[in-house]
Amino acid sequence: MKNFLCLLTALILASSCNSPTSDKNQKTEMKQEEVIDLVSEVNAVKKVMKTYKETLESLDVTDSYALFIEDSEVLEQGKIEGTYRDYIANHIGPELGHFESFTFSEYEISVVLDMPYAFTTESYIYNIVLKEDGRKVERKATATSILKKMDDEWKIIKTHSSSRSVK
């Protein structure tokens, strides 16, 4: 019985010694948790996507590279275009030179956050007027993009768009 009481006393002392340390560790862990303002983060993601859209509308993509990570991936109309730099060099960049105007209407965006990632779905109609003959192209389109928050900035890591004729 004496051995049992000694063992029980030792266990009680050991557990009481661990409690303050355990509470201290929990407090330290709680202090390290980051409080995220979801509304601000969603607005920041929307701003990146709006800036990208406005860049295309301006027909000058010079400042748009900063919106994408270096090894991003662009998919359009069922084709893997490569990185954003590849897409600009080999697809949309040359096309923009043939446009008189490129505008978006009926634009809607939804954002889902799963920090440090954001997932966007956009729908819109785009209108292109060609320089050569003034011909107008109107398409209904959707796009999905994945962004990642890196060094306190949202960057596009992957984007996929498709379109069809407007009926």
From TrEMBL:
SUPFAM superfamilies in the cross-refs: NTF2-like
Span of the signal peptide:
1-21
Q: Determine the domain of life of the protein's source.
A: Bacteria
* Domain DUF4440, first and last residues per copy: 77-156
* Pfam families hit by this protein: DUF4440
Q: What keywords is this UniProt entry annotated with?
A: Signal
This one is known as DUF4440 domain-containing protein
